């Protein structure tokens, strides 16, 4: 996915043999692009930490239960036979825990090996294997994009064909359930974890999403630090519009201090995803006209959120006073089907933040990097050439938030040969005003006895009627 620099028209063609090693410029570009690979290492590391924490909690819970039972047996007045029987039961529990921990230890080792394999992969590119490594990297980026866009079958097939999966124990394609023992370069198991929740939300089921929130409750609360940083960035952008730089810095520091103090004094700035799920479940009870059930549900599950989301809860609670779906737009919005789509998008955002993933697919980031150098006002005009990537609506949408590229010198591409017109291949102007390269027009004149035919308007003229144009 690298682009060679365009010739400037001053170099001469030589017959020297290309060196076998990659030029230093390409290695420099690779080093710069590796700065975007933090997700490649962060995701398996976060998954590794999650597994360790879950195993630790399971051991602490089981051991605590066994110790408590032993203390109870010691304080109770039971016969020797009963004591032996109960202690034997506890030994069986501990043996079962040992077997389970041995299985989990193998899982931890595989995840640690995955982290090591990815570090080795990022350290492996050099001048000799740069092309092969870049091709594998492109396939990784494509697999990641497919999994993010829910193209699971296609992403898995590409990963298999590219040897990105080291061992697949078994695959049930009909049920879309994959148990993958070790994946060196892709995170299919992580995305399949998200797929279960996404499919449930698309089927208007809340339970799997709530179970996911309960499983990651402590980690979701820690996302408050990211929210503080985002709010600080937004505040800085707003303050930066002030005309007086001195006032900017002072105002920003004051607002920054207020935000941090408010964050420490608030209720944790935790993720709103669970709250939104609870609201949706409440709305479904109101939709079913189970008003008493909705009120009981609100008292049990929504009351703890009252201090943080007072306004939203007031609006939602008002829906119980209507008979059927309200006509008022403020309350009717809670009953629209798009609320489920909003929950899906919110889950994707929380899921990416939880595992340290980029909010945007890496493929989009690389495409935007290239499109930023191609975007000009002409790209959005109706007569934009089809050779321009920005003539396609999908690329235009991707480039919409990007600034226009700064072109110090005009670059003109010949309509006929698709080659760049420069000092060695200057543009020539036909009597009708259309411009083509000298190379293309000379070849046309040789084939047609000095006659030139415009490929756009079919105008026929002599080669001597052409006027040389100069690029400024």
Automatic annotation (TrEMBL):
Coiled coil (UniProt feature): 84-118
UniProt xrefs under CDD domains: RING-Ubox_Emp (cd16659)
Annotated keywords: Coiled coil, Cytoplasm, Metal-binding, Zinc, Zinc-finger
Chain ranges of the RING-Gid-type domain: 384-457
Listed GO MF terms: ubiquitin protein ligase activity; zinc ion binding
Biased composition annotated in UniProt, kind: Low complexity: 11-25
Keyword Coiled coil found: yes
Main location: cytoplasm
Chain ranges of the CTLH domain: 190-293
Localization terms from the record: Cytoplasm
Keyword Zinc-finger in annotation: yes
Zinc finger (RING-Gid-type): 384-457
UniProt cross-references to Pfam families, sorted A to Z: CTLH
Location of the region described as Disordered in the Swiss-Prot/TrEMBL record: 1-25
PROSITE patterns assigned to the protein according to its UniProt record, in alphabetical order: CTLH (PS50897), LISH (PS50896), ZF_RING_GID (PS51867)
GO biological process: proteasome-mediated ubiquitin-dependent protein catabolic process
Protein name: CTLH domain-containing protein
Organism: Salix brachista
